[in-house]
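Throughout our pipeline, every protein is held as a single compact record rather than as scattered files. Nothing more is needed to write down the fold, since each code stands for a local backbone conformation. For reference, a complete record is included directly beneath this paragraph.
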Amino acid sequence: MATVKVTDDSFDADVLKSSTPVLVDFWAEWCGPCKQIGPALEQIADELSGKVVIAKVNIDDSPMVPSRLGVKGIPTLMLFKDGQMASMKVGAMPKGKIVEWLAEAGISASAAA
């Protein structure tokens, strides 16, 4: 499963009403570190398919949601569970750190995978 593009209009339905935890990546086309973590997020979306949805919000195309959530710098990763923000990280991280962070939040690949 690839990452999902989310906009100001679709944020509530795609993220807040999701029955699956959602990791939202707030990013922009001009942001170098955002582009660096993109491939890692795609891999995580595949590896943890069904356990977490990886959503991407382009802050230039959809400025209202990041503003409402107080996003100050990008990339900002926010983990939502049951419509609530459970955890947040700001700045680029290697894939391993993102996977560790998700595991701390109770989202990890099963041992059989």
